[in-house]
Amino acid sequence: MCGIIGYLGPREATPILLEALKRLEYRGYDSAGLAVLETGQQTTSLTKSEAKVDLLIEKLWGQAPSGHLGIGHTRWATHGKPTTVNAHPHADCTGRITVVHNGIIENFAELKAELSAAGHEFLSDTDTEVVPHLIEQYYRGDFLAAVRQALQRLRGAYALAMFCLDDPDLLVGARLNAPLVVGLGEGENFIASDITAIIPYTKRALILGEGELAAVTALGAQVSTLDGRPVEAKIVHVDWDVSQAEKGGFAHFMLKEIHETPDAVANTLRGRLDEAGNVHFAEFDVPSERFRTCRQVLLLGMGTSLHAALAGEQLIEDWAGLPARAIDASEFRYRRPTVTEDDLAVVITQSGETADTLVGLNLARARGALSVAVTNVVGSSAARDADGAIYLNSGPEISVASTKTFIAHVVSQALLALRLAGGRGRLPIERRQELASSLRALPEQIRRLLQSEPDIARLAHRYAHYRNFMYVGRGLGHVVALEGALKLKEISYIHAEGSSGGEAKHGPIALLDPLFPVVAICTESSTREKMISNVHEFVTRDAPVLAVVSEGEAELQGLATDVLVIPRADELTSAVLASVALQVFAYYVALELGKDVDHPRNLAKSVTVE
Ligand code: F6R
């Protein structure tokens, strides 16, 4: 989720670009850069920094390029480490065409091979760099025509801003599966990844639709499809201030990030899963042979990431038929664990910097295990230390409470389980296809679920006065229960514990009374009947029961005190949907209690000490 800005108008572009990049840093700050067409000099000045925008400002101090057309970028790395060469903008071989990009070009490897064979020279490890070279390949003096031809060959997700030295009065933007807006000023115009960047300059914006392209001059913008059909663009008036704009109009980052989950999941899946259920990880390209001899999978993590590890444990055992163990990394490091060269150690960490998880990773490596870091941060310590990496590609998560990245972690575990199953010749092809299609349908299912946000908010209002909660589930529903309880306690400070349905009657059930509600996960699963029996036990103890159920569920209506209904789906999808629903529930409970949702007390986003 990188930040993009483009400017064309009578003012000096450099200060405007730098100021906008500062405001866009919340979208990522691995590295930054800008390109300005220097007035009168017939050159494009390109400046990059391998760190935050402040370093870029320092580099440009006293030597800012002078010009009226420019593009800038602040990077959240996906393909290629956060280094100066990988920072955007990227240029073609001649330096005429410059491009900034947010998204992932799925077919970049094949395009790069084709362009290299045609003589193009690549400087970076990024997927983005194929774009200027592809445009160069088609360029015959008409920049817009070359852009149209090039973009028709790209698969994946892109929001692009670009210009060509030969066209000093033209700034071009295009989007597919990633947002892009055109800011309409007085005699000047902008292109940006989001409204935050342009808010001090204009309140009028044109929202680009999927697969559309904007040809922007200082006086206006023309929108068309990639094949050149004109489009009637929608102009909106934005009343947000900068802080509202950063949150996309949501009251908190947590809620914004919950709403980003469909895109986060799509990005985790992007380019990795084919229709037959085969999975390919570019940065963890291990021969299947290695998985055939694998003895066990160790999954290490902390907090929410440990819960994702618990989901991975079940999926890997079930689909790949491999013994798998999810382990609290802080405990693992002080044990004398049985790890051998035949094991696979999977470390699950959003930040890639959690101290206990890193020590666990290095302990497993020291004992010879093959290791892979599943992380959201390219170039993080975990990604550097492990033998391979599986990136979530979810974009930065700012709220301390993890939401979209938990779901992306669970999805990445499903991909890993499918990869291991494929490598070990497990799962019939029909089952693999079925799982692949249900994973692919997830983003849409989550969008559907989020339409019931007002109903979930009403339930939160009804339950917010309780001081204790028990969350109960079985199988993947047990993971949902543990994570649901953690989400509630960390942002609302209400005591909540998670239990398996079977375990409840071995102790936890003693806590129940009319002031101790149970959140029971009763969605689609092979143990749903057992959960219904559990609900009977809870009701008998006079505990209020909020049952999370699939659409059309009749048995629990009238038995549970309340029901939270999610779309009907298979077991894995139901677990994901129930988790998202309980994130929304926790959010509204905390809101009701007036808590500081994005900055819960005593917690930090990344725990880099033991
Ligand atoms: C809870 C939460 C934490 C983290 C934990 C591990 O919402 O975010 O429990 O999951 O601190 O962090 P990472 O995943 O960065 O290793």
TrEMBL record:
Leader peptide range in chain numbering: none
GO terms for cellular component: cytoplasm
Protein name in UniProt: Glutamine--fructose-6-phosphate aminotransferase [isomerizing]
Biological process, per Gene Ontology: carbohydrate metabolic process; fructose 6-phosphate metabolic process; protein N-linked glycosylation; UDP-N-acetylglucosamine metabolic process
Lineage: Bacteria, Bacillati, Candidatus Dormiibacterota, Candidatus Dormibacteria, Candidatus Dormibacterales
Role noted for this protein: Catalyzes the first step in hexosamine metabolism, converting fructose-6P into glucosamine-6P using glutamine as a nitrogen source.
SUPFAM superfamilies from the UniProt entry: N-terminal nucleophile aminohydrolases (Ntn hydrolases), SIS domain
Active site as annotated: C2 (nucleophile), K605 (for fru-6p isomerization activity)
Predominant localisation class: cytoplasm
Subcellular location: Cytoplasm
EC number: 2.6.1.16
PROSITE patterns for this protein: GATASE_TYPE_2, SIS
Keywords assigned: Aminotransferase, Cytoplasm, Glutamine amidotransferase, Repeat, Transferase
HAMAP family for the chain: GlmS
Pfam families: GATase_6 (PF13522), SIS (PF01380)
The UniProt record lists the keyword Membrane: no
Native source species: Candidatus Dormiibacter inghamiae
Transmembrane feature ranges: none
Catalytic activity: D-fructose 6-phosphate + L-glutamine = D-glucosamine 6-phosphate + L-glutamate
Every SIS domain range: 287-426, 459-600
